[in-house]
Design brief:
There is one protein chain. The protein is of the alpha+beta class. It has helices at 4-9, 15-24, 43-56, 58-68, 73-78, 81-93, 206-245, 252-277, 283-308, 318-329, 336-348, and strands spanning 98-101, 117-121, 124-135, 142-148, 156-162, 168-170, 184-195, 199-200. A hairpin with a 7-residue loop joins strand 4 (142-148) and strand 5.
């Protein structure tokens, strides 16, 4: 909460510092086993953490969500013992910041259209290509990178790419509508030699790694969306109480609707997290939670803007900040149009 105004302006602590602070509090490795330096927590713990942070500041929440979910979970699920021992203790301690590099400018939601390539050369892979809209780009220490090693969905492989390797470059963080405190930029690899031992999973299994990461990652984004909605509702309630005390009757119908949608989104998110913890397939339920929670956070933030007007027109107003931050939740970790495709395909399956 103390850094939220600065994060909203884009001049708060760096993503690495946010993760360092989480590490100091014992929270940068919630999902990592205690034997590897983590807290050995559950996905239920994880979503409560992300929601609580997002209620105060969405930029901090997405930095931590990416680090904990798509930046760390693929290592937990697909990494071998050597990879886990080399990287997970640093990530869990908050010493290193993790990022996930799948999206490309020309690919959008069609991940199979990626152009980044990895060519085997002895004991290394040579990676070339560019990734776009990468959270943490320019500050991350470790990137989980998807690159093409063949054709089609079975021609994608995953790699653990250290930021310090020669040829790894990043562009300046992009100016965005919201989430100003979270760095989002391009990741460029120019003939980067990655040791073959840093391939994550089998060659050709990268698409499986990516989709598994996104399934659980969508649960985290759902929690972020719930936190944004709750923060927007907090702002609306504060304004309503102040105006009520001044003799103006609040719009109780809109306030009630905001609470109902936020509560429902929270329960859908908790249900999806419980399925992950139970080891069950979560693709459908994660898509449902992500779709509903992120649509909810946009709707609730817009209602907060209306209820707090005209004060909410001021740039740093809590409702205005959350309105700007909310929209990205409908886009990243799979657009909500893609979530609808996932849900419909499941229902139409024979």
């Amino acid at each position: 909460m103390p850094v939220a105004p600065a994060m909203a302006r884009g001049d708060g602590p760096s993503p690495r510092r946010i993760v360092e602070a989480a590490g100091e509090a014992g929270l940068a490795g919630i999902l990592t086993p205690e034997a590897l330096g983590g807290a050995g927590g559950s996905h239920g713990d994880f979503i409560r953490f992300i929601e609580a942070v997002a209620r105060a500041d969405a930029s901090c929440a997405v930095i931590l969500d990416v680090h904990l979910s798509v930046g760390t979970e693929p290592l937990l699920v697909f990494g071998n013992d050597d990879q886990k021992s080399r990287y997970l203790p640093k990530l869990a301690a908050g010493e290193w910041l993790a990022a996930f590099a799948l999206t490309e400018a020309a690919g959008g939601s069609d991940a199979i259209a990626m152009r980044t390539r990895a060519v085997r050369d002895g004991d290394t892979y040579v990676l070339d290509g560019a990734k776009a809209f990468i959270t943490g780009a320019g500050d991350a220490d470790l990137y989980i990178v998807m690159a093409r090693t063949g054709d089609g969905a079975r021609g994608v492989s995953a790699f653990l790419v250290e930021a310090a390797l020669p040829g790894v470059g990043t562009g300046a963080p992009r100016a965005k509508m919201g989430l100003h405190g979270s760095w989002t930029g391009e990741l460029v690899r120019d003939a980067v030699r990655v040791p073959a031992e840093n391939r994550l999973g089998d060659e050709g299994a990268g698409f499986t790694v990516a989709m598994s990461a996104l399934d659980s990652g969508r649960v985290g984004i759902s929690a972020q969306a719930v936190g944004i909605a709750q923060g927007a509702l907090d702002a609306a309630l504060e304004s309503a109480r102040r105006r009520r005390d001044a003799g103006s009757e609040p719009d109780v119908t809109t306030i009630a609707d905001m609470e109902v949608r936020t509560a429902a989104a929270r329960q859908l998110t908790r249900h999806a997290a419980a399925l992950v913890d139970a080891g069950q397939r979560v693709t459908l339920d994660a898509a449902i939670a992500k779709l509903y929670a992120t649509d909810t956070c946009v709707a609730v933030a817009q209602s907060a803007m209306d209820l707090c007007a005209p004060e909410s027109a001021v740039d740093g107003h809590p409702a205005a900040v959350r309105f700007r931050d909310a929209k990205a939740c409908q886009i990243y970790e799979g657009t909500n149009q893609i979530q609808r495709v996932v849900i419909a395909r499941h229902l139409l399956r024979d």
